Amino acid sequence: MFFRVRTLEETLPFGAIQLSQTAPVQYQEHDRLKSETELRIAVVPPLVVISIVLSVRFSWLLTILGAIAVGALLVQAFKNTRQRYDLLANAAYLNLIDLPVVDATISGLSDLEPRPSTDGHWIAALIAAFDRRGLYDESDFALGEAQTLDSPQDLLDVIDYLRKYDIDVPASLHAAVERAGEDEHRDVTRELIDSVLAEPGSSPPPPIRNSRTEPGSSENEGSTNDE
User: Fold this and answer.
1) How far is CA 184 from each of CA 150, 174, 189, 209, 215, rounded to the nearest angstrom?
2) Are 155 and 180 in contact (CB under 8 A)?
3) How far apart are CA 6 and CA 201, in angstroms?
4) 126 near 159, Cβ under 8 Å?
5) Measured between alpha carbons, how far is 169 from 31 in angstroms, rounded to an integer?
6) pTM, whole model, 2 decimals?
7) What is the pLDDT of residue 154?
8) What SS3 state is found at 202?
9) How many whole angstroms separate alpha carbon 140 and alpha carbon 123?
10) Cα 81 vs. chain centroid, distance in angstroms?
11) What share of the chain in percent tops pLDDT 90?
């Protein structure tokens, strides 16, 4: 979930040139599917124009027939594109082609020290690997996904690991920690925030607001009297 599928889809077509050297038969099939897809898409605009012109001069039923023909061509083009991408994905799985973005990510993860030990550390390691290899869009995407985690401990592990690599931790990630710990594991989260998020010499972070305690309730009044 932290690696964009769209990134792989965008880079798959670039492996077709490698396929021509490693698997010529599969490359010919890929080239056939690509040519048929391009032909069908190229036929669509003139077919639309012709059906409109003929419907004006003869019958509006020709517009319906033209729309059906256009729809069939687009469906065939979509199916051919899916088959072409499936072929390339299978080739990548069999190591017939290389995906640079995957290789860069693996290389970035291999160089990281210390080695990740928790789920949060692995998520942060992936973000750091993207950042170190110049895959900034992927890094931002993974960072956004990390903010949706439900576990305060995982979120704090992400922050802790990113700080070890001097990667800026956005305020939204800090806010995600407090949202995750607002209703559950409140005391534990409080201690973790004090120990991990508080900088040396700075004032401790503000307390987490308990959403189940309304301002002016008896609980708040009792704490004020005790002070």
Assistant:
1) 10, 16, 9, 12, 19
2) yes
3) 44
4) no
5) 45
6) 0.59
7) 84
8) coil
9) 12
10) 22
11) 17
